[in-house]
TrEMBL record:
Gene3D superfamilies xref list: Zinc/RING finger domain, C3HC4 (zinc finger)
The enzyme's E.C. designation: 2.3.2.27
Official protein name in the record: RNF213
Domain of life: Eukaryota
Organism of provenance: Mytilus edulis
Keywords: Acyltransferase, Metal-binding, Transferase, Zinc, Zinc-finger
């Protein structure tokens, strides 16, 4: 890079050119992070991380084999940002408006729902009664539209009942559910239901990990705990099914150490944290 050569001729450039060591990459990461915070309207840590990765990727492509040398890398980061200035600005605008996009999308689905479902209802009535008012091409188009609409309704319900439920821990990634149902979504078929079930179980596992730390094994049934765990006074952890079995059998002892626990154990008073051993 010509700019790098010019800067190297300056006193500060000569000083930076002599800096070497295995810690250079870590220094670059810290510098890029500070640089992004200074020049970009960062709103979240995840946004900053994404921008830093983009700058590093662009810098590697720009300076090629020189990445890792302090001076060329610093200049490469600045040049990357300058060359992609408009793209970074567009990204900032998207991030700014995105928080309200879910609600706007939900509003659109609700507005269109009566009309769309009326069309599907008439189509189904036509097929059942063999009235054949719809041609073959039209039938195929409506079937595909119905699959897409089913996807939209499933995602809508997920957003309404999970992502906007006002809970402390929210599940923000809705697109994987949309992608999961990309092929012939039909909630009357077992295959589509199994896809939704698998996605919800994955989300549940992620949320449990966020709330209670890494997944642990129940000392009662020795299976991974899929929901909120229960910590007994003896510090052993069991799943809610095993706890319910103990209550049903009136056997109020830990399955592991046989120590008794209160009959009125409050399951709601669980502190978040790592339940691992």
């Amino acid at each position: 890079m010509k700019a790098s050569e010019i800067f190297q001729s300056l006193p500060l450039g000569k000083l930076l050119s002599d800096v070497e060591g295995t810690y250079i990459l870590e220094v670059l990461k810290c510098y890029i992070r500070d640089f992004v915070y200074m020049i970009h309207p960062v709103q979240t840590n995840s946004e900053c991380q994404l921008l830093c990765e983009s700058v590093i990727t662009g810098c590697r492509h720009l300076v090629r084999g020189e990445y890792g040398r302090l001076l060329p890398s610093l200049l490469g980061c600045h040049m990357t940002y300058i060359l992609n200035d408009m793209r970074f600005k567009n990204f900032a605008n998207i991030v700014h408006i995105w928080p309200g996009c879910k609600l706007k999308w939900l509003r659109q689905v609700c507005d269109y729902r009566p009309v769309v479902e009326r069309i599907f209802g008439h189509f189904s009535h036509d097929i059942e009664n063999k009235e054949f008012q719809y041609g073959e091409r039209c039938q195929k188009g409506i079937e595909n539209a119905r699959y897409q609409w089913t996807r939209a309704v499933v995602v809508k319900l997920f957003i309404e009942h999970v992502c906007t439920a006002g809970k402390e821990v929210e599940i923000r990634r809705c697109m994987p559910l949309w992608v999961t149902l990309r092929e012939g979504a039909n909630m009357k078929e077992v295959q589509s239901l199994e896809k939704v079930e698998k996605f919800i179980k994955t989300c549940n596992k992620d949320v449990v990990t966020q709330c209670f730390g890494q997944q642990v094994i129940c000392v009662g049934c020795e299976n991974p705990i899929q929901g909120p765990p229960v910590r007994l006074p003896c510090e052993h952890v069991i799943c809610r099914k095993c706890l319910q079995d103990c209550i049903t059998l009136k056997d109020f002892v830990c399955p592991n150490c046989q120590k008794e626990f209160p009959k009125d154990l409050d399951q709601t008073k669980l502190k978040r944290g790592n339940f691992g051993h």
